[in-house]
Amino acid sequence: MSLDDLQDDIEDEYADLGDELGVSLDRETRNELAMLAAAFDPEETDEVIRRAVHMLFQTAVETGNLDFHLRSEYDVTYDEYLSGMTFEEMTGGGQQFPQQQQKDDRRYQF
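Above: the chain sequence. Below: its structure as tokens.
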């Protein structure tokens, strides 16, 4: 899969979601949501759900978990998605001006 496939899948998922989402809750999730609602006292529990999605997304980006799954499924990273091109495309792919291959054993020395 590719960056274009990812973009298409995101657009499809976005369209399928709509503005509201009905979610069934298991006992553990219901208990945790009740605790968060009591602690944060939002106007509606929907706000807690929105915050949870933002937090999960941020955590997935910061830990590299999102990149891992995107790389596994689409062979791209989140940064590549944001820029609209792969790192290979950003760097020219190394195909325009082939460089002579040199073995540089000092490369990792300080």
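The chain has a mean pLDDT of 85.
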